[in-house]
Amino acid sequence: MKHTEQHQRGTRPAEHRSDILAGRHAVMEAMKAGRGINRILLADGLHGSGVRELRDLAREYGVATDVVSRSKLDAAVPEGVRHQGVIAYAAPVSYVSVEEIIAAARARGEDPLLLLLDGIEDPQNLGALLRTADAAGVHGILLPRRHSVPLTETVARVSAGALEYVPVARIGNIAQTMRALKEQGFWIAGADMDGTETYDRANLTGALVLVIGSEGRGMSRLTREICDFTVRLPMCGKINSLNASAAGAILMYEAQRQRRAKAAVPHG
Q1: What are phi and psi of 152, to 5 degrees?
Q2: What are phi and psi of 118, to 5 degrees?
Q3: Where is the composition biased (Basic and acidic residues) (predicted)?
Q4: Alpha-carbon distance 194 to 209, whole Å?
Q5: Helix orientation angle between 123-136 and 244-264, rounded to the nearest 10 degrees
Q6: C-alpha torsion sign, points 247, 108, 188, 203
Q7: Which of 105, 111, 129, 265 is deepest in the core (most CB within 10 A)?
């Protein structure tokens, strides 16, 4: 990678951690119940009012739908399961809204610290980032719906349980989300190998969004432009970049260190 709400959930029982939901009614009821849905697959040639209703509901909940061959759906579900031309990949936990994350942090009297992941596609990195986010007191993670790995069983396993405690919000347009947060008083710091400040000299206190880019490309150009400032990690060796989860861990802990130091300073 180029340098480019703490909200507690109860542990869900094993029967609610299945990856695949089959059938139109099962998928629709899961969305209505607030279940985290990563993606819906529809069989090619599927038509009718029920399909239109499903598409409308998916659009309302911001869930991506893709049309695939019926043979692909047959291969995705266990033998004997009737999918009726519709399956959904469900997250191990439910996603929350950005507003919920912020409100939970404010309710605790804390300045929100958010982690926005721009193009993280490796579930191992996402799981590791979740684990560090829990340890470092990050209030929530913002995960784009497109071009990012969703919450899966692999992510949950690598997170070593942290996924149950760190809220994750799925966002649509990254640029729009960043601009909306800036309007709410957030500062946005992007990790970049050519950052304007070193990580330990940048001010990482207050309402803050830390942006970590993809493993290979770093942040997108537009994301970098919207950041208020960028921070870099000094590289003293022969390798000029760090793994996304390693860079993210350093920045999250530096933000936590600065916040503790600020809180320890007597007021008045």
Answers
A1: -135, 175
A2: -100, 85
A3: 1-19
A4: 19
A5: 10
A6: negative
A7: 129
